[in-house]
């Protein structure tokens, strides 16, 4: 039987209530950031509806356009981009948005303080085959004064300047996971209530490790130390797990212990993943959960960004495995 103290865990707390109860932890506690997080969660619920019915509503498949990343846009990439930017516009807390799906800054309201960087739909090639996908977001305070146009340097802030970051995982259940720098908390969408409910308080990578995650077809073409490290993972009995949706791979590894690797290759000399839309947010969450995130050399959060759509090698996961990877490098 569960001990009495376990029964005190605040399961049953809605995301709205939780965000409000934590508002004072934040140094600019005006409620704007809280509202912004709620706006993202609302758009997440709408996108969830669209993801689960994509096969019925004709939202599977490609648009026929190539996005700024040079990748084929899926219909849901476009839909999710619209849903999030619209929610952030209507929510009135955001000054500007940058999205993986759009080349330039989307200016919203220069009187606001917050900048959002977003990967509206991560793992979108998995949509058509009913495999988990996600949304990843980072939130910054602008550096320039309100009332002026948001500038490139408001967007190009280091990951360490994030005031909040999170992801939504559209998986076998839908989860909203976020941090404001005071630990990581996860909420599961109760479809009957239409609410995200706290289900995973104070998430941490466990001490034990279980998985390594890499697209193994990259091994031949990546630096030899990556293969050596993977061999060592196999020898110590770790299982291979790779979904191909970064959010889902990251989430599993954070819950079960593991490491995710996306190295550079000859045709992707800077790796594949996007610093602003994917890596900064997951690095912030990882560190808040006792994990580590690097580009193989540098701490991800310390990298000085040069371009909105910059790519980077990405290694993230349990501390012990990240240390071991470092020894191989
Ligand atoms: P996106 O769908 O936002 O473009 O991201 C896809 C990313 C990431 O989710 C995933 O881990 C990785 O691409 C998979 O790449 P490979 O197919 O090269 O393994
Ligand atoms: Mn992505
Ligand atoms: Mn995407």
Element layout with pairings:
Blueprint: H1 4-7, H2 15-22, H3 32-52, H4 54-57, E1 62-66, E2 72-74, H5 75-91, E3 94-99, E4 106-107, E5 114-122, E6 133-141, H6 152-155, E7 164-170, E8 174-179, E9 184-190, E10 195-200, E11 211-213, H7 224-235, E12 239-240, H8 246-256, E13 258-262, E14 273-274, H9 275-288, E15 291-294, E16 311-312, E17 314-318, H10 319-328
Parallel strand pairs: 3-5, 11-12, 11-13
Antiparallel strand pairs: 1-2, 3-4, 5-6, 6-7, 7-8, 8-9, 9-10, 13-17, 14-16, 15-17
Helix pairs in contact: 3-5
Bound molecules: 2,5-anhydro-1,6-di-O-phosphono-D-glucitol (AHG) and manganese (II) ion (2 copies).
Residues 77, 100, 119, 121-122, 124 line the site of one manganese (II) ion.
Q: Which residues form runs of ≥5 with pLDDT under 50?
A: none
Instruction: Average the pLDDT over all residues and give the rounded result.
Output: 94
Coarse structural class? alpha+beta
Number of strands: 17
Beta-strand portion reads 25-35%
Overall body shape: globular
Radius of gyration from the alpha-carbon trace, in angstroms: 19 Å
Q: Kindly state the percentage of residues in helix.
A: 25-40%
User: Would you list the SSEs in sequence order as H and E?
Assistant: HHHHEEHEEEEHEEEEEHEHEEHEEEH
> Can you summarize the main beta sheet?
8 strands, mixed
Distance between the termini: 47 Å
Largest sheet strand order: 4-3-5-6-7-8-9-10
What hetero molecules are in the model? 2,5-anhydro-1,6-di-O-phosphono-D-glucitol, manganese (II) ion
Number of helices: 10
